[in-house]
């Protein structure tokens, strides 16, 4: 049960963690994303699906503060309860958010890891950004998180380049979660992995998301991944969100013709 659902049980008003209004960035006709609006609540997982070139990755870049929009707003309620307007904030403030209260899991783990330092140093770096300097604490956190993502803690001093692709992706997840973020962005986190490794990673992700009550925005082309992880879905096509709603509702009874095509194409033998 998400934090939002728990509050609703006690009839307490639930405030969005993340609010997006009319977010637009176009590189050409129907290239990018336009007119995107939604609210994301604590502990909720939002999946963004669609074909290649539909605008999913552009939207994720905008949501995570990596590039400015043509128009629209992104507001985040920080741990102090204050609303932060992402694109009115300074570059330094956005970087601080990404190092502390947010995380970003790249599709290619090599883009999200420092390949020249040890696994332990990759995990400890985010804690150091929060002011932790005690070597024993940093190493203990590294050992703990390697165990949580099913990597042998004895490999804490090994370089990430000696790890398999699946292990690198799990290490990247540990690096992001060690700082207890409230919001995680994921860009095709199972892309490029073989089926058995994908299944283990998805099982791990699902457990961590629920256990830590994380809010997540995940971009994926894989509807099976979306069904396993996402509470709600947004379906994108040609820069527009063509349908949005509960994951099971969209995957079991899609209303928009494109959503129907997307779902039926996966069901074909």
TrEMBL record:
Work out whether the entry's keyword set contains Manganese: no
In the UniProt record, does the keyword ATP-binding occur? yes
Q: A GO molecular-function term, please?
A: ATP hydrolysis activity
* SUPFAM superfamilies referenced in this protein's UniProt entry, alphabetically: P-loop containing nucleoside triphosphate hydrolases (SSF52540)
Q: Outline the extent of the ABC transporter domain.
A: 18-263
Q: Which InterPro entries match?
A: AAA+_ATPase (IPR003593), ABC_transporter-like_ATP-bd (IPR003439), ABC_transporter-like_CS (IPR017871), P-loop_NTPase (IPR027417), PhnK (IPR012700)
A biological process (GO) of this protein is: organic phosphonate catabolic process
| Keywords from the UniProt entry | ATP-binding, Nucleotide-binding
Protein name per UniProt: Putative phosphonate transport system ATP-binding protein
Q: Which organism is it from?
A: Pseudomonas guineae
């Amino acid at each position: 049960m998400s934090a939002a659902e728990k509050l609703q049980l006690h009839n307490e008003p639930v405030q969005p963690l993340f609010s997006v209004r009319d977010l637009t960035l176009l590189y050409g006709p129907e290239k990018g994303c336009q007119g995107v609006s939604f609210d994301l609540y604590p502990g909720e997982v939002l999946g963004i699906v669609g074909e290649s070139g539909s605008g999913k990755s552009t939207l994720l870049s905008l949501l995570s503060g990596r590039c400015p929009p043509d128009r629209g707003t992104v507001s985040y309620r920080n741990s102090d309860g204050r609303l932060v307007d992402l694109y009115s904030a300074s570059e330094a403030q956005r970087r601080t958010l990404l190092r502390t209260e947010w995380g970003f899991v790249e599709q290619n783990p090599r883009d999200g890891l420092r390949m020249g330092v040890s696994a332990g140093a990759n995990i400890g770096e985010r804690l150091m950004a929060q002011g932790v300097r005690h070597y024993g604490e940093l190493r203990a956190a590294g050992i703990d998180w390697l165990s949580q993502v099913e990597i042998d803690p004895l490999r804490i001093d090994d370089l990430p380049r000696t790890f398999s692709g699946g292990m690198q992706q799990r290490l990247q997840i540990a690096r992001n979660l060690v700082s207890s973020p409230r919001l995680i962005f994921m860009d095709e986190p199972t892309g490029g992995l073989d089926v058995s490794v994908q299944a283990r990673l998805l099982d791990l992700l699902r457990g961590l998301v629920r256990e830590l009550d994380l809010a997540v925005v995940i971009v994926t082309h894989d509807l099976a991944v979306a069904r396993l992880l996402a509470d709600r879905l947004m379906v994108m096509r040609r820069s527009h969100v063509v349908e949005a709603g509960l994951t099971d509702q969209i995957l079991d009874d899609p209303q928009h013709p494109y959503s129907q095509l997307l779902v039926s194409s996966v069901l074909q033998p």
